[in-house]
Amino acid sequence: MPTNFRLITIPVSHYSEKARWALDYLKVPFQELAHMPPFHRGATKKYGGTSVPVLVTDTGVATDSTDILRYLDRLYPEKLYPTEPDLQLLSMDLENLFNRTLGVHTRRWGYSYILTPKLLYPRWTLGVPFWEKLLFPVIFPKVESIVRESYDITETSAAESYQEIKCVFDRVSQTLADGRKYLLGDRFSAIDITFAALAAPILQPPEHHTPPPPLELLPDRMQIDIRNCRATPAGEFGLRLYRDNRYY
Length: 248
Hints:
Blueprint: E1 5-9, H1 14-25, E2 30-34, H2 39-45, E3 54-56, E4 61-62, H3 65-75, H4 85-114, H5 117-125, H6 130-150, H7 157-176, H8 190-203, H9 220-230, H10 233-245
Parallel strand pairs: 1-2
Antiparallel strand pairs: 1-3, 3-4
Helix pairs in contact: 1-3, 1-8, 4-7, 4-8, 8-10
């Protein structure tokens, strides 16, 4: 069994939260090595990663949030993924939808509103080395430009991404409409972790690793989007997962 688990993260990264949640849920002792952009690149590059999260152990490395969950699923008897063929198909479909659409657009939606030093400083610097905090004012203008270009942040990006998020929430609400407790049925799984973690930017759950600010401190339009998503069956489900299944 591997030992010395280290998770390289950006504190507020929802993909990092996905991996962090799985480790906490399985009660795997680990050390979190948090970095703010762009310093995370140096921390992950030496392990072959291009972004966060990266999980490093004494026997190997996993360089993607889904790879990390699959790796943990192989290691521990409590399974994160289903073994039934029919549930495996649904699991893959939803996991791909959340990874490729929900996570991409909650990030773009969030940065469309909070790409300011005041709002980003507490999110990017929680638990990072002290010298990174000191350099935040110096590097922020450059990193802001990179973020805007990388995630195509424009005057319309928040509204565009909100529509994509809404479509995913509609799909989740439909899946839950038969009264099931979790997305794959009666058992909590990696798919629930993936949905709740990647939806967190637009749900702002109080139980999140990076404590969200009071809603009234956020831009007005952002507050409206958050409240609208929270009020859906999918939003209520995501918030319940954080209340009932987010173990530290």
